[in-house]
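User: quick one, fold this
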Amino acid sequence: MYPVIAPPAGNARISGPNSGMQSIFFSYFQGLLSNPGCILTLASIMLHMALPVISQTGLPANVLAEWEKKYGKDADLLNGEKYFYPYSRAEGDPFLDREGREATLRIRGKVFGGQMIKYDIYRQQLVLLYEDLYGGTGSLVLRNEWVESFDYGPAAFTRIKGPYEERGYFQVIYEGSISCYRRWTKEYKMDLSSGVQNYYFTEPAREDYLMKEDYLYRYRNNRSFTRIFDAGDQKTVRTYLGQNRLKVKKMSASQMGHLMEYCNSL
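Assistant:
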């Protein structure tokens, strides 16, 4: 469902200075609805051209004001491909959290708080869950190239260049001279154990990285973690890990944050 279009009922005519343009717009938009993969690049036009029509439906001004306050008057937030879930027969799901979470999104320099999203870590995309002006719900895939960062519950994610030059979402563990990031992934696999072709999603898996001089280095254990540091600091870091009985592959985000504070103090 698309949030800002409210075409007149029955044979009601569109009146006003833009009536001809609005008639053309609604005919064109009706055609777009037949394409389930259409891109909502018309959100900004819809908001400004549909306002005179919306007022004819009797929507209170405060309802429209609250909707605009949450989603904005432009197309930066409500802009993307309508989302359809293609894994109905698979076990599990592609999300970091099945139910999603409230998030603060930063899109093209603008901040949108209080948004419900699901983070698809299999396809590395964000699905926005939104309400239209009439209380209905919808979902769309946000444009990755527009999203700069987002706060997802207690975790912060940013979109940066990965180890193979691709850009993706990474959880921010620590940022400093040497930064620490974590990427979450899932795999979509086939299960033939029962003799029937079934598909399932694996549990979330993490990949841990240090960023040094704008390049990401993956680490899997204490040895690979220590080797990322300058030669003069490697022995100090290795000794610190041993004395405190720390295993980086088992450490939480909070524990890694404290470790990175120490490493950046060297």
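User: anything notable?
Assistant: The mean pLDDT is 80.
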